[in-house]
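Audit log entry. Action: structure prediction of a protein-small molecule complex. Ligand: flavin-adenine dinucleotide. The ligand was supplied as SMILES and no pocket hint was given, so placement is left entirely to the predictor. Protonation state taken as written. Sequence taken verbatim from the request; no trimming, no tag removal. Recorded inputs:
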Amino acid sequence: MVSDIFHRDFAPIPYWWEAYTPTAGELVEVPRAARVAIVGGGYAGLSTALELVKHGIDAVVLEANELGFGASTRNGGAVSGGVNIGKSFTGKTTSVDPVRVDRILSDASDAFALIDRLIEEESIACFWEKPGRFVGAWTKKHFDTQSRRLAVLNSAAQSGAHMVPRERQREEIASDYYFGGMVVERSGKLHPALYYQGLLEACRRRNVAVCARAAVTEVSRAGNAWRVETSRGAVSAGDVVIATNGYTGDLTPALRRRVVPVASHIIATEELPPDLARSLVPKGRTLSDTRRVLCYYRMSPDGKRVVFGGRARFTQVDATVSAPILHRYMTDRFPQLRGVKVTHAWTGNVAFTLDALPHMGQRDGLHYCLGCNGSGVAMMTYLGWQTARKIARVANYACSLDTEDFPDHPLYSGNPWFLPIVGGYYRLRDTVDRLLA
Ligand SMILES: Cc1cc2nc3c(=O)[nH]c(=O)nc-3n(C[C@H](O)[C@H](O)[C@H](O)COP(=O)(O)OP(=O)(O)OC[C@H]3O[C@@H](n4cnc5c(N)ncnc54)[C@H](O)[C@@H]3O)c2cc1C
């Protein structure tokens, strides 16, 4: 029975919100003017503001909902020092010039260094650890493909990547589910909502105006400045940064056509018996796999629960739909968890781009940083930082993700009606691949 998986204390909210719940707090008044107005108060928006203020530039962060409403308090908290170049949610592989691949991986590596530094400098208590990641191979062919990627990962992103054959897989995970896999040593994990709260406090300490419940409804030119209309008054700003990622809406139709919001879902289990909890992921790494319909998982920061995510569906669905699917994916990998109950289930939007790369740049005069493609804890922090440095004119190198080329598609206007079909198709392709493996 499906309902058997739900704990009696089940709540359809992120487990992370037990430590920090998105809140509007005492509403900060929307200032009449700021040098820079930032739309969206997630990691990208806060990190932009934080870096700007460090260069003496005053910024206002305008968030439509409570502070931390978006993906930044809902994610899995796995922090990668790489980027999945060319691997889009449509399964399409985009080809990227090898020289640019190296530069992108180098930026991804810098993103990892930045988050590491920020957490230390701002004393953010968010259970930040760097135990590495294990990426399980769904098929033998995937294992071979992973092996071929090692060299570039290690040379361009200093990933410390190495392969683990199937015979030694139990050193990484208490499961025989995969065909071996790849370990990426330069990879970490944190508590995403506490990292968010730490960035928020770092902004507040420097008197950045972070305004909750200030939905931006229109941005227009007013002479040399921008007039930014919000639900709580207008701001005049010299520059505007759009940091709305998977929640990009009608405010910026040209950007909305360039990001596809795909839902990702997560469950957290009840506390497990200590011996069982300790046995599941012996080295405490984060885990994911090479399926098209990816699963990602880890132990909770206290090591007592499994936090298990994946694209149970590509659209927002109720926890009664997503949680049983994720529970099944979890017990496929860990049959020893059958009977374990789910205490939390939640969802959030990931922003995919049509070339499967994150982007920053300027369009119609507006700055943007968008398109985490599922891996944005470090990357969106970094793109915000890069955008701030560009505005402050202190960037000492051009970010490889800052290009004019941010593709759209003539048949996509911003309404991803096709996602259920794409999701179904890729689940089928995964099943066939596995049957043939
Ligand atoms: C379930 C899930 C699991 C994930 N797991 C991982 C992971 O393990 N590792 C990883 O690296 N990444 C992960 N990600 C991705 C990561 O969470 C995101 O890349 C990152 O949080 C994006 O930050 P952001 O600031 O760009 O956007 P968000 O945090 O989504 O913030 C955007 C904000 O913009 C606001 N907004 C939108 N329109 C307006 C408007 N008109 N006016 C004002 N405000 C507006 C929204 O309310 C929202 O709060 C995951 C994402 C999800 C959803």
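Audit: result stored. The first strand starts at residue 6 and ends at 11. The radius of gyration is 21 Å.
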